[in-house]
Write a structure and sequence with these properties.
The protein is of the alpha+beta class. It folds into 3 domains: about 210 residues, no CATH class; about 270 residues, no CATH class; about 170 residues, no CATH class. Helices cover about 45% and strands about 15% of the residues. It has 26 helices and 21 strands. Strands 1, 2, 3, 4, 5, 6, 7, 8, 9 and 10 form a 10-stranded antiparallel β-sheet that branches. Strands 13-12-18-19-20-17-16 form a 7-stranded antiparallel β-sheet. Strand 6 and strand 7 form a beta hairpin. The longest helix is centred in the last third of the chain and has 42 residues. It is globular and about 75 Å long. The C terminus is likely disordered. The structure holds arginine and glutamic acid.
Length: about 750
Amino acid sequence: MNSFSMKKLILSLTLVFAVRLVFAVEGMWLPLLLGMLNETEMKSLGMKMTAEDVYSVNKGSLKDAIVQFGGGCTAEVISDKGLLLTNHHCGFGQIQSHSTLEHNYLEDGFWAKTLKDELPNPGLTAMFISRIEDVTAAALAGVTEDMDQKTRQSTVDKNLENFKATVKKEAWEDLLIRPFFAGNQYFMFVTVTYKDVRLVGTPPSSIGKFGADTDNWVWPRHTGDFSIFRIYADKDNRPAEYSEANVPLKPKHFLPISLDGVAEGDFTLIFGFPGRTNEYLPSYAISQLADVLDPARISVRDKTLAIWDGAMRADAQVKIQYASKQAGLANSWKKWKGEVLGLRKTGAVKKKQSYESDFKKLVATDAKFTKYLKLLPEFEQLYRDITPYAEAKAYYDEIMGGNIEIYRAANRFLGLVRANDKSGEPGFLEEKKKVQDGLTDFYKDYRPEIDQRVFAVLMELLSKKLSKEFQTEMLTPFLDQAGGSYEKLAEYLFKNSFLTNQSAASVVLGKPTGEAVKAILDDPICQLLNSLRDVYNLKVSPKYNEYNDRIELLQNTYMRAQMEVFPNKKFYPDANSTMRCSYGQVQGYKPQDAVSYSPQTYLDGVIEKYVPGDYEFDVPARLRELYEQKDYGQYGENGKLPVAFIGSNHTTGGNSGSPSIDANGNLIGLNFDRAWEGTMSDYNYDPSICRNIMVDARYVLFIVDKFAGATRLIQEMKLVHPKKEGSTPAKSKDEKPKLKKKAGVNSNKNFKQEVKPEAY
Ligand code: ARG
Ligand code: GLU
């Protein structure tokens, strides 16, 4: 199908749904298409804004307050001075990097007293979207259905390169073009990326990460998962590298914050940059995930995390050093466990199978679909073929990608050898600079004695789980020498490798090129990694890539086929780290027989979970005091302080830090998680159990104001009472009545409805 008929198809779907008004909140929608596809439904769910208030190219709209934060999270502007709200876990790396045992901001929190005290974060970015355009026609020019994946991709790449050269943009803008619907559509994002983003404030981890791993991915939740940053710009309000001369950004739009809270059934809009979903896969892919890939990854991380966790509990220094790495590994690990559970529980494979049997029936009855007859059998065969390679890849990815840390250091050193092989001494010297910087970071948070234990356990696991053909023979003689003990093997390798300590590594790095290369090639851990990579590159990845390319191409066809065969189904593109809206309502759920969750938690729940001195459930004294005094100020509700709530918005990783926005465009919460039973929404959204978890905006304000006393921040925000008195700004603590700031969609109510012509 060409892009024009695709557009017609989506348009006709829109009309069907506009009339039916079904209650369906699944989907992550492109903001520029809301007017065409979603506005009616959004209004039926309670939205008071127009699609144009949410996304407009011509005026300040909600989208101008939303940024991609640090490449992987979302954040939103909440003041006219570029104040940025995101999750604690999104700013975690930065908070950690400013922390020492003396100034432990992870432990104690941090609140900059003045602008001057706000802390710069090299490398941290905030990316705005100026506009979005459909560029499918340009991307797919000359692409034909009989092309193989490589030819197709290189045609598209060439097209896009030529096309980019013709796009008009400002010097400070960049272009991002991404495939949608498995490469059947392409959209361009014109972006503006700010590079001076400073840390303004963060609660202690006992609030920002309250409940840590035990509560992660779980409802009911009591985490104040937020931190505050600020975007700085040059004197012309443009992006600039960090400089003392930079000034706070004057945003096109910022979100007012509602003090009125939420009730079950209230409209919620989540705006952000969801990372990756796969909603249109065949059943074979889902079985592979639930039965093979997730269990493989989980089994590796089970082992690593058990060792790290013990070490972190035993030593405060290790707890800081491993905090960020541990949070990263543990997070996906727990998500995968929930995912497997949810896929099984909701019968995801069966559901896909029944969808596929409908698909097959329709395909069989219409001659124009004959070309789709072989699709599913081909998938079945390809998934059968790829599975052993995909499984081996999962193990290798885990083991070389962070669980065994020393392989990361080894990989950097081997990079030097590769650079030398490729471009001789100049290449080596060029690479050396990068390695030097990287190593300082690496060793700052590295404990070889911990890693050695992980190494022993995981190399043994690899030998048990992987079939012989995917294993390196290099280990055998070492292992024989160690009497078959992986612990002894690890001890020997770690003792004889220069990689285990920074000064030895620096000595090697300081040697003349030839000697350095020799030292690297003589190092036993570098040798081992080299041989593992050889096995991977020769035995795993060629077949994996071959099958995977074919699967991708087939998925491209299957996507198109699904849209043609089910013209009444409403399709949304899978998440791909581009800007999306998902809408829903505040809603509880029933995860199990006789269990029913209400949608809001309160500070009382924090106190119920309180375990003095605990690694996960300690509560700061000041917070307990405020609780005893019930000193909640304007943030309380009937004598209680709201903490978090859930909704039916379809979200995924990358939506962390996304604003939860009310019917009028005010901030009511901050997205940070999903409920355990529903993490399979990345493959199979099920409205009965898929819930996103948000910190209540009132808890954020309470912590900033009452707990931390950071009133200068409250004063620059715009607090409103949309339910009580229209949208008039509320008075914040100790504050003189403020002039109404020019912001909020409330002030842009009379936008012209103007959908971009590229839309349809
Ligand atoms: N599960 C959430 C996400 O995927 C929160 C992670 C941070 N929290 C934590 N306890 N590790 O990012
Ligand atoms: N915590 C996730 C993130 O970092 C969001 C939760 C999810 O995956 O839905 O983006």
